[in-house]
Every structure is written in C-alpha cells, then in structure tokens.
Amino acid sequence: MMMSDFPPGLVLILGAFLLPIISQKFRPILTLGLPVVTLYLIWSLPNGVFSTFPLFDYQLSFVRSDSLSRIFATVFSIMTFGGSLYALKQKSVLELSAVFVYAGSAIGAVFAGDLISLFVFWELMAVASTLIVLSVNNKHSLQVSIRYFLVHVFGGTLLLVGILAHILDTGSTTFSAMEPNTFGTILIMAGFLINAAAPPLSAWLSDAYPEASFSGAVFLSAFTTKTAVYVLLRGFPGADILIYIGIFMIFYGIIYALLENDMRRILAYSIVNQVGFMVTGIGIGTDMALNGVAAHAFTHIIYKALLLMSAGSVLYMTGKRKCTDLGGLFQSMPLTAICGIIGALSISSFPLTSGFISKSMISQAAADQSLTIVWFFLMAASAGVFLHAGIKFPWFVFFQKDSGMRPSDPPWSMRLAMILFSGICIGLGVFPELLYAMLPYEVTYEPYTVTHVIHMLQLLLFSGFAFFLMLPWMKRTLTITLDTDWIYRRAVPNALQKMFSIIWQLDRSVRDALKLKLNLYLSYFSGKNDRLSFLLSQNYPSGSMVMWVAVVLAAYLLLSFI
Amino acid sequence: MLNNNESENEKHWLVRKKTIVLLWRVGLMILFLLVMADFFVHAHPYFGIDGSFGFYSWFGLITCIAMVLVAKALAIFLKRKDTYYDDE
Prior knowledge:
The structure holds 2 protein chains of 2 kinds. By secondary structure, chain A is mainly alpha-helical. Among the domains of chain A are: 242-483, no CATH class; 491-561, no CATH class. Chain A is 72% helix and 3% strand. Chain A has helices at 8-18, 27-44, 67-86, 93-111, 115-134, 141-170, 183-195, 203-208, 216-235, 241-259, 263-284, 287-318, 334-347, 354-368, 372-398, 412-430, 433-436, 450-469, 471-474, 485-532, 541-561; strands spanning 48-55, 58-65, 479-481. Chain A is elongated and about 135 Å long. The N and C termini of chain A lie far apart (113 Å). Chain B has 2 domains: 1-41; 43-81, no CATH class. Chain B contains 3 helices and 1 strand, in the order H-H-H-E. Chain B is flat and about 60 Å long. The termini of chain B are far apart. Chains A and B meet through helix 10, helix 15, helix 18 and strand 3 of A and helix 2, helix 3 and strand 1 of B. Strand 3 (479-481) of chain A pairs antiparallel with strand 1 (79-81) of chain B.
C-alpha cells in the first residue's frame, strides 16, 4: 500500500487510541494536528478506487475518491479540527477518543467503495457516538445512550440484511446508485433513513444529542445525519419517496422546535429540519438538486456546529439549558451572542451567509422541475427556519427577558473555534465559488441576483415580523412535547406491564380456582368414605388402612399360637 | 418618574424602551421598503401566483402564522410537564 492510498479516516481512528496514553499537555497537538493530516491525505488522493482487499469471493475497497466523497470528507475533517479546538477544555478523554473514532469512521464510510466496508464503518460510528453520549456520566446518560444505541443497532440490522439480500441479488458488493424496488434495496434505504432521523424513528436525535456534553453535541450534530445524507445521495438519487419523507422532516423539525424549551433540543429538531431539505433535494435528483444537497450538507455542518458551540458556551458558563432560565446574556457574552447570530442567519439562508448559497439551489431545482407543491412547501419551510431557529434561538437565549445572569464569554479556545466557523459561514456566503468548485456536478447557478436577494429578504423579514407579532404565543413553558420515542419509552413498557399483570392475575385466579376444586373433591371423597366406614377410611385412608392391616396381622399371628 | 428614568438608564442601551420603539419603527420601515421594492425588481414567476405583488412578503407572514397555529394545536395533545420522563 502506498502512502497516497492510505484510507484517510484511519488516521483519526488510530489517533483515537493514542489520546488516552499521551500526556494532557501534548494532547492538543494530536487533536488539532490529526484532522489537518487527514485533510491533506484527502486532497492528495487522485480520483479512483484504492486500498482494495479480497474477502472470500468479494472485493473490499476502502477508498473511492471522487468529487462527491471528497467534499463530504473535507467538511468532516474541517469539522473535526474546529470541534477539537472548541473541545480543548473538555476533560473527558473518553469523549475525545470516541469523537476521533466517530469522525474517522464517518470519513471511512464516505470513502467506502463497497457495501461491506461501508457497513463496518457505519457500525463503528454507532458505537463511538454512543460512547460520546455515555461519557457525560450523569444519572440520565446510561438510559439515554442505551436508547440511542438500540435504535442504531436496529437501523444497522436493517442495513445488514438489506446488504446481504442485495449482494445475493446482484452478486456484487459495489456501492453505487440503486432503485428502492427490491427487498434488499428497500431495507438498505430504511437503514440509511434511520440514521438520517427520518420518521418514524426520528426521536433518537432530539432525545440523545441534547444530553451530550457542551462539546460532544457539537460533534454529534455533524457526522451521523450527514453520512446518511451522503449515502442516500450516492445510493438513491432521484427516488421519489425521498421528496415526501424530506418534506415531512422539514415541517416536523419546525413544529417541534417551535414548542421546545431546551435550547439544544431546539437545535436538535432543527437538524432534522435541515436534513429534510437535503433528503428532499436527493429525491428531486437533478444535477442542480444534488449539487444543492452536497453544498447544503457542507454549509449546514459548519453553521449547525457554530450554533451548538454558541449554545454549548452558554451551557458551559451558566450550567443552564432551558430558555425559561436564560435571557439577556448578550450583555456579558457579546462574542457568543454575535457568533450565535451569525450561525442563526446562516441556517436561515440570509444573503451573504453560507446557507443562502446552498439552500437556494434545492428550491431552484424544484422550480426547474415544475414541482409546484414541493416548491411552495420549500418556500414556507425557508420562512419557518428563520422562525424556529434563526430568531427563536438567539432571542430566547441572548435577549428576551433579563435573567440577571452575567456570565462572561467562554475560554479563548472556545471563542477561537466560534470565530473560525463564523468566518467560514460568511466567507462562503461572500465567495460561493470556493464551495461551488468542489461540487460533484458543474454549477450553472448564480445566487446573487437582485430579484432573488430581495425576495429572500422579504420572505425572511416577514417571517421575523410574524415572530414578534406572535411573541406572547411563543412564550416558553416548562414543557416537553411527546415524540415517537414515547412509544418505546412509555406506551410499550406500560402495555407490557399491564399485559403481564393481567396474565399474572389470570394465572393466580385459575390456580386458586383449581386448588379450590381439588380441595372440594378431596373433602367430598373423604366425606363419602367417612360415611361408608368411619374406622377404615378417614381423611387419610392409607395411614389408617396400614394400621388396620397391622392390627389384623397381629391378631392373625396371635391366633396362630393358640 | 425620576426613579423610572434612572432604572431605564441603568439598563443596557439595547434594551431601553427608547431603543426598542426605535427598532420597531426602523423594522417596519424596512418591511415597507422591501414590499415597495417589488415595483422595481424584475420578477420571473415559476408558477403564476408567485408573481403576484409582494408574494414573498405575504407568503412568509401567512405561512409562519399558520405554522405557529399548527404547533399550538398539536401542543394541546402532546404537551407534557418537562418532568414527564424523570422517573425512568
């Protein structure tokens, strides 16, 4: 194997095992250096398939390098670098090691050229991300991580069965575009969709991510769902059903985020919303749409990480996470507030931010394909993003009422990470060509036309107007909104409990009735015997019979001597 | 009255009443100008109705109000105290 075809993800995975043994002083060299090495390896790979190994009759290929895998791997390694910078204050080595395995296997999954190695990295991601949630080590984390892990194991099982069926059908392990029309491909798509937080098993995301540490949530937001977007983009471009699933995810995210009180859970629901845009784009499936999806995944990872860094800084400095406890923090955390607002404007696709140049491509693709209803939904959703994340997050955390808290901005490493990602958000918004040059298809899109800018400003600012008009209705309360996790956290356990208590009751009453009947028969027979012969057969006939036999024998013996 | 003024002055300039009133005025002005801009930009509607006057403005406003209403309606059935799962 030459250095040039070394799987880039392995650098991070192997590095993860060095982190616990190296002293804390030198750890930053690894956590900041390894992502840079990875990025270098990614860009020094020429297009093509490398690192192939035979496995029985099949061929594993760990590196398939093309523009699509490169853009995802690139943003994953930028994310790992920025996140590591942010996480310099993170004391848990378990979390950092898990993060590096997680990031490395996400890059490994993106480069995987065959379904078997894809599956290996897929499962490695599930284990590593569970460890990130578990490493918080408070009274909830064990329960949360078990729930999280079980959902992903279920998704992984669907994927594995699908892959095996697909290999039996086609005789090939190659991972390329498929149609969801056979048993195998449908299961593969279902496995992919579970990781994309698609319905009905979408609640794992908003359940687990907000329970991670201030830095853990930043990493979690980036890899699992975006790897799922990548594999859907590679495996099922143009599958119609994805349009409907995506639209559902978009509005599910908005509605639940609107009702949420926990600041990081608002952002978690908005991940589902943003992934919904991407899934819709994959369903549309034209070159423009797929370019838009890849671009949006790239920009989304950066601004969502930025938003979670901003929320994580608030959590780190105040220990509070509910909107009802927060407010007025802009006064003492100006940098965190400004960076949070930049992230919020980017997710809302404001002109001159990164979201503007990526999301518009997806709605443009819907318009080009004359998908009328889809387009109207996407426009309404663009307004809704500003409503549920763009304004709601900064308003309730940094403005709203004065909570009286005056925490300062977080330590320099966290500030630097936020400044770096804010810079990328604005940089890509101002120079879209930088991103467009990396896209898988040729870009024929011009985001900055006067008409488009004016229209988007109208849409967004009137959405903001609606927010402030309905502010009394937006007031946060100490509530949660039931999601599909209620089914496996409450409904099924309760139903099982009820079922077993009914079974046990039934069992006991049947036993009691039988015992009663037996006793009745017993006393009936003994009574009958008593009436027949008081001496020979009482309640315990065998005992008295033995006695009477003994008496008879003794009498006989006595008589024989006479 | 004097007391009121003093507590106003102690506040961060951004949250003083005067600033908030000013922000509302400027904001409404921007919204008005944006709608007026529709007279000047060259619209190329894809589906017809999106070429109507101020489409993006009223569409954004109405759909946002609708989404909040739907959320409120859903909350009637699905809202629980945030201690709901605490006994796990």
